[in-house]
Fold this sequence. Notes:
It is built from 4 helices and 7 strands; from the N terminus they run H-H-E-E-E-E-H-E-E-E-H. By secondary structure, it is of the alpha+beta class. It has a single domain, classed as Nucleoside Triphosphate Pyrophosphohydrolase (Alpha-Beta Complex), CATH 3.90.79.10. Strands 1, 2, 3, 4, 5, 6 and 7 form a 7-stranded mixed sheet that branches. Mean pLDDT is 91; it is low at 1-8.
Amino acid sequence: MSEEILEESKPIPDDEWESIVRNVPLVSVDLVVRHNGGVVLGLRENEPARGEWFVPGGTVMKNETLTDAVHRVAREELGSDVTIEERLGTFEHFYDTSEIEGVDSKHYLATAFVVTLDADELRPDAQHSQLKVFEPPYDDVHPYVERYLTKLD
């Protein structure tokens, strides 16, 4: 990613983020991470989907390509870079909660990518209390994650 794009990819100020979440769908990437015969999921610590096992993912920043977003999210949420294997497609996610007080919903247009880790060690970020490899059959995962997993070959 170029220096110019990195400069524009800084976090959005809280008041602007609230307005965005309140008014428009968020464009995001989700990572279906194949590892050791299963898929890596994180136990979410924040809304939406707090307390659920979910794929790593994040919002695409202005002037950031989807591919660049996948690599940034992997480094931030897994502590590793990844190799993109395939694009599963774009999915809509509707939540009846958000991390912002007074905002009672969140809407994502999430493009899911199947990826593999470039390193064996995983380091969870503040959004996940732990990372774990789930093997088929995939029990106790969020319904949106289940949609991704049914599309895997």
